[in-house]
Amino acid sequence: xxxxxxxxxxxxxxxxxxxxxxxxxxxxxxxxxxxxxxxxxxxxxxxxxxxxxxxxxxxxxxxxxxxxxxxxxxxxxxxxxxxxxxxxxxxxxxxxxxxxxxxxxxxxxxxxxxxxxxxxxxxxxxxxxxxxxxxxxxxxxxxxxxxxxxxxxxxxxxxxxxxxxxxxxxxxxxxxxxxxxxxxxxxxxxxxxxxxxxxxxxxxxxxxxxxxxxxxxxxxxxxxxxxxxxxxxxxxxxxxxxxxxxxxxxxxxxxxxxxxxxxxxxxxxxxxxxxxxxxxxxxxxxxxxxxxxxxxxxxxxxxxxxxxxxxxxxxxxxxxxxxxxxxxxxxxxxxxxxxxxxxxxxxxxxxxxxxx
Length: 356
Hints:
The chain is mainly alpha-helical. Helices cover about 50% and strands about 10% of the residues. It has helices at about 35-50, 60, 65-75, 85-100, 110-120, 135-150, 180-190, 200-210, 210-215, 245-255, 270-285, 295-305, 310-315, 330-355, and strands spanning about 5-10, 15-20, 30, 225, 230, 240-245. It has 14 helices and six strands. The longest helix is centred in the last third of the chain and has 27 residues, at about 330-355. Helix 3 (about 65-75) crosses helix 6, helix 4 (about 85-100) packs across helix 6 and helix 7 (about 180-190) packs across helix 11. The protein starts with a strand and ends with a helix. The protein is elongated and about 90 Å long. Strands 1-2-3 form a three-stranded antiparallel sheet, covered by helices on one side.
């Protein structure tokens, strides 16, 4: 409901200030010289809010998108669940600030955002390359986090305009996994690497499905070789995850522990340093199409082919939903059929013969 306030200026001039607010949304205010004008404006705004139309407030007129991005990066991101990807978020938001940072928030409309989305897809983005639907959606997600915070926490806008912008359909991510021959070739080249622990890193990735970032941040205090477990802390989705260690991983870690400090990080180097030696070993094994992340896919594929359920795979890899493991279902189905056949042959075939 609108509220009206009669105000008397220094020169004796009367103005009417009207305030409109719906639920917990920000207050929309404006001043008029006549009350009838204030009432008409209030009715118009209330109608727009009732039908879900975006109505910019005074903060949206004063603040720019660049202001919102700066505040988000300085205050919100360091304590947000996306803080593990702060470098990536900063890069994505850097493009938004460079392209649209000077616009007032009132000017960030669905049409502006849709045009930016199409620019990214058509090669007018930061790399001048045609970006995939999934990559364009990451740019939209980055700016959406800023706009949502501006709406719900700061009261700078009354509604996130990206809610009315359609995202691209994500291209289905490939599930590339190493064959037995490819795995053997890769491990052989890892043995020849100047980075002594490279084979240990790769074997641990294959045995646990851990992400590269989880491995380079792994601390010895999170490794329990007696209980055969490893705990990854503050992972990509914000949770801790404990994963059982296969004997091959235990042997690899025990061997590496004898050469390392036994305290602090298990692998004392950055992802960039690891990648330098990873690419050399990968290319030497004639596997240039394999990414480090494909070791995670390989682990999941091996689990599926070993009869692990989707729930087991999700728990080991740290997925919160089963949707992410559907790509491995065909592998699981092949081996589930074999298991059903073995069960039927052992327990049901005799009963079938009796019935005949």
